[in-house]
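REQUEST ID: PR-0412
SUBMITTED BY: lab tech R.K.
PRIORITY: routine
TASK: structure prediction, single protein chain
INPUT:
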Amino acid sequence: MIVGLVAGALVLAACGGAGDTTGDDVLVSAASSLTEVFTEIEEAFESATPEIDVVLNIGGSSGLREQILAGAPADVFASANISNMDLVADAGDVEGDPAIFARNRLEIAVPTGNPGSVTGLADFSRDELLIGLCAEDVPCGDYGRQVLQRADVVPSVDTEEPNVRALLTKIEAGELDAGIVYVTDVVSTGGDVDGIEISDDDNVYADYPIAVLTDAPNGDAAAAFMAFVLSDEGRSILADHGFGLP
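STATUS: complete
OUTPUT:
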């Protein structure tokens, strides 16, 4: 069961804070849309706890889930959706209850200057445009298709990318005319892609859960890292990168 921030933070603080860690690496498997924000959180956490080294494993949430279920070492899992976390929890690989730490929403991304003259979701059905989505088995692909379905648009898709960062890279390079990514991904490019808002009626909101894993090689450091993400400082960093807060 996914729980809120306060309860999750209190449980983790009781399990072990920064002073209780061993100094080993903490291995964090995090969704691709968390690349920039978790890089900054990593730096802030390591500054506060120099005895701990954070190692980020960034990828699509479904791929990370499969790595964990296959027994790959990991201390913390941060997913871009609840369903992948639930599958890990159902397998008995989550310690305690996951906590929702951030929220996101979808946005249309186009190359700078919008050469395809895209104005909204209806343009995703234009055969002459090069359109990209994330693959169906990753959260951004699932969310993107939900958005298009809500808008009653049948997309003309030219490529399906394994994660949102791969899709964003192609849009930024001008290889695609449009794609559906997270608002925070558009923010992360610093103006290297343009964003087009999706109406509230059509949009989908993503909840991001985080959890310490049952077989975490360094459970104390994992608990300290998760508590930092849930802390006021962690939440401030998330907000600075455009994430919503629960």
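NOTES: DSSP finds nine helices and nine strands in the chain.
REVIEWED BY: pending
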